[in-house]
Amino acid sequence: MATPPPSFVRDLAVSFDQAGATASSAAPAAPPAPTSAPPAAPAAPPTTTQATVIPAVSVAAASTPPATLFIPPAPMFPLVAAPVAPAAAPSSQLGTVYINQHVPLVLNLTPSNYSSWRTLFELVFAKFGVLDHLHGSPRPMDAQWVQDDAFITSWLYNRVSPEILSLVHQRHPTAAGVWRAVESLFLDNAETQAVFLGSTFRNLEQGDMSMMRYFTRLKEYADQLADLGFPVDDKAQVMNMFRGLNPRYFYAIPILTMQAPFPSFLRCRAFLILEESRLNMASPTPSDTALHVNRAPAPAPAPAPAPPTNTNSGRNSNRNRNKGKGKAPQQGDAGSSSSGSSSTGSQTAGRLVQLPAPATNPWTGMVHAWPMPWRPHVPGAGVLGPRPGAPSPFAGHAAQYTPQQPPATTP
After folding, report:
1. Average pLDDT for consecutive 10-residue bins of the chain (411 residues)?
2. Which residues are listed as membrane-spanning (predicted)?
């Protein structure tokens, strides 16, 4: 079945018909056509793919052969507007930027360096005039804008750690989308983070940290609080620094607080770093003190014991002399003999030394079967000597071989 022509084509054909009828009534009759001309062939019926031909009557002269008007066939499917691709953009100046020179930091979660990373990138965006890619409306039909946005997105992906990249990665990303993803990663739940971070900031103490490290930690916490929307002013930082200062530098607090105007955070840092250097130069180092203690003299060795004496020679000589004379011993002699025996026994008993019980295992160390001069030797004693207050490693010690003096006898 043939598709009917559109309405505007039908209206145009009717207008042509009316104009042709008016011209026919006003013009003289045309001569009859010659009989020798063959009759015209019947027109074929129109098909769905064949154009419809409508005869038109010329208005100028009736003898002019009729003209034809070409009408295209109606489309079989509705027409859809095809997307128009942006024109090719010229080479962008952002392609020559080496971002590692402008942003030498790689963003990390622990420890967080988001504040410094964000500041450096904002400076880069301001230098090249591309801040509208973060806060403006996208322009996908602008080829130059699309190319610059791809460069900025590549910068952001290049300066984050692999862990953060896996968290903020997007399909068909834009610079604004990646920037907001990184921002939400660090600044979501700002109030809760500010509570814990503020507590850590106000409880920080110097301890054994250097002055430079102490001031750096304070500044990092203050910057993170400012990113969360809770900034700390300069005077509050100075007062918090005084609170956690090492007691070694308490004398500097009245010196700084008496200045007019009140010193800034950077001025206090410069003053206290100089004081730290001066105190370190004036006080001795712990290594020098330890070396002085280790040079103490070694203990003196114990004196050698005296050899024992024989006390039975005098008594044997008196007994042999009495046997040769054949006399019985006198009463006085017996008394003197008994008194001599008792005095000799007391002297002998006085010379016998009772060794004290060993404090350690007697089967360890060095054991002597007979008296000999004491040889001071302590296993493990090196160049520095034995450890002070250490127990003796032997079953006996030098005091066991020291002879004791006999008690005084009365005549």
Report:
1. 58 66 53 50 49 47 53 56 57 86 92 91 92 88 91 94 92 92 90 92 93 94 92 94 94 92 94 93 62 54 60 52 50 47 48 59 58 56 64 52 57 54
2. none
pTM as predicted: 0.46
Q: What is the rounded distance in angstroms from the CA atom of residue 242 to the CA atom of residue 248? A: 12
Judge whether 72 and 52 are in contact, CB under 8 Å. no
Q: Which residues contact 240 (CB under 8 A, 6 or more apart)?
A: 201, 202, 204, 218, 232
* Torsion angle of the four alpha carbons 351, 353, 354, 355, in this order, in degrees rounded to the nearest 10: -170
Identify the three-state secondary structure at position 17. helix
Half-sphere exposure of 351 (CA within 13 A, CB side): 12
Task: Please give the DSSP secondary-structure letter assigned to residue 6.
Answer: P
Q: What CA–CA distance (Å, rounded) separates 149 from 132? A: 10
Which of 288, 264, 268, 263 minimizes the C-alpha distance to 206?
A: 268
Give Cα 358 distance to the centre of its chain: 59
395, 361 contact by CB (below 8 A)? yes
- Residue 156 and residue 100: Cα distance in Å, rounded? 11
HSE at residue 56, side-chain half, CA atoms within 13 A, is 16
Q: Comparing C-alpha atoms, which of 26, 5, 27 is closest to residue 14?
A: 5
pLDDT of residue 182: 94
| Closest C-alpha to 97, from 76, 125, 75 | 125
- Helix, coil or strand: residue 70: strand
Phi-psi region of 43 (alpha: psi -120 to 50; beta: other; left: phi over 0): beta
The whole-angstrom distance between residue 76's C-alpha and the CA centroid of its chain comes to 66
Six token digits for residue 322: 């009495």
344's CB contacts (< 8 A; 6+ apart) are: 311, 314, 315
- Separation CA 281–CA 376 (nearest Å): 44
Coil, strand, or helix at residue 175? helix
Structure tokens, 178: 């990646």
DSSP state, 314? H
Domain boundaries in the chain?
1-26+46-75, 93-187, 190-284
